[in-house]
Amino acid sequence: MNYNNLFDSDYAIVNPFKGKHAPDLGSVAVMVSAVSELHTIRRLIIPQTDNYRRLYTSRLYLKPQTDATSPVAVVGPYIGAPYAVMLIETLIKWGADKIIVLGLCGSISTDVRIGDIVVPTSALVDEGVSKHYRHREDRPSYASESIVHHIKKGLIENGLTFHEGPVWTTDAIYRETVSAVKRFQQKNAIAVEMELSALFSVARFRGVEVGSILVVSDELASMRWKPGFKEACFKKTCHSVCTVISKLWNCI
How many whole angstroms separate alpha carbon 187 and alpha carbon 20? Predict the structure, then answer.
C-alpha cells in the first residue's frame, strides 16, 4: 500500500490511521451506500447481532472469523466521493484489501431501466477527488477485473441479468444537465452515480481491489427525470443483490 515517506515532496501530512482501539479487519469489506440495503446485508451476513461501531457518521459491522468463514466488515451509509474515500482509506488502513461496493445509480442509457443491475467496468471522472490520487481526469478509472469477474459469476449463478460498462461519476447531483448527459452518453457511459471513479482511483493508488454492483433507481436517458425508488422492481432487485453479496464476500 502506498503511504508516502517524509522525504517525498508529495508526502501527505494527514494520513489515515489506526488507533489502539481500532479493530483488525479481514481482507474483505462491503461498502453499502443506502441505509435500507446496509441493514439488509447486515442481517444476511451477521444475523446474530446488531452491534456496530461508529466510523465517522457511518456504521461499521464486523463478522469475526470462524472455522468456516473469513472475517468481513460491512460499512455504510455514505454519499459522495470525498466521504466515501474517507471510509475506504480507513478500511484499507485497518486491513481490508478487497472491497465490494453496493450503490444506486441513474440510467443514462435507453437500454437500462429502473430495477436493472449495472456492473461497472470503469468510471468516468467528473469528481474532484481522483486527481489527488495521481489519476488523470481525462482517463477512466477502472474496477478490479478479479472482483468484477466474481460479481458477474455470482449474479449469473443466482439467475440475475445485468448490464456492464462504464459509468459516469459526478459530484453535482443537481447539475446532471442535458449537455452533460449527452456528453457522457457519447462516451458510452450507461449510468451516473457519485463515488466510483474516486474509489477506483484510491484502489489503484493504494494497491487494493474494488468492484461494484449498482441498482438503477432512476432514469435520465430521455432528458426527463424518472424516479423509481418506490417501485416494486427496484426494491426486489435491491434485495436480490444483497443476497448475492451475502454469498459472494467469502469467495473473492
Answer: 46
pTM, 2 dp: 0.95
Tell me whether strands 53-55 and 163-170 are parallel, antiparallel or unpaired.
Answer: unpaired
22 assigned to some structural domain: no
Question: Nearest Cα to 169, choosing from 153, 191, 148?
Answer: 191
Q: How far apart are the first and last CA of the chain?
A: 19
Residue 152 is assigned to a structural domain of this protein = yes
Q: What is the C-alpha separation between 62 and 146, in angstroms, rounded?
A: 24
Sign, CA torsion 162/167/171/177: negative
Residue 53's CATH number: 3.40.50.1580
pLDDT in tens, 103-124: 999 999 999 999 999 999 999 9
User: How does pLDDT run across 24-48, given as a tens digit for each residue?
Assistant: 899 999 999 999 999 999 999 999 8
Determine, yes or no, domain membership for 9: no
**91: domain range?**
28-248
Phi and psi torsions of 251, nearest 5°: -115, -10
Does some domain include residue 225?
yes
Count how many domains the chain has.
1
Among 126, 125, 112, 115, CA closest to 191 = 112
And the C-alpha cell for 25? Answer: 479487519
Q: Is 98 left (phi over 0), alpha (psi -120 to 50) or beta?
A: beta
Q: Are 112 and 218 in contact (CB under 8 A)?
A: no
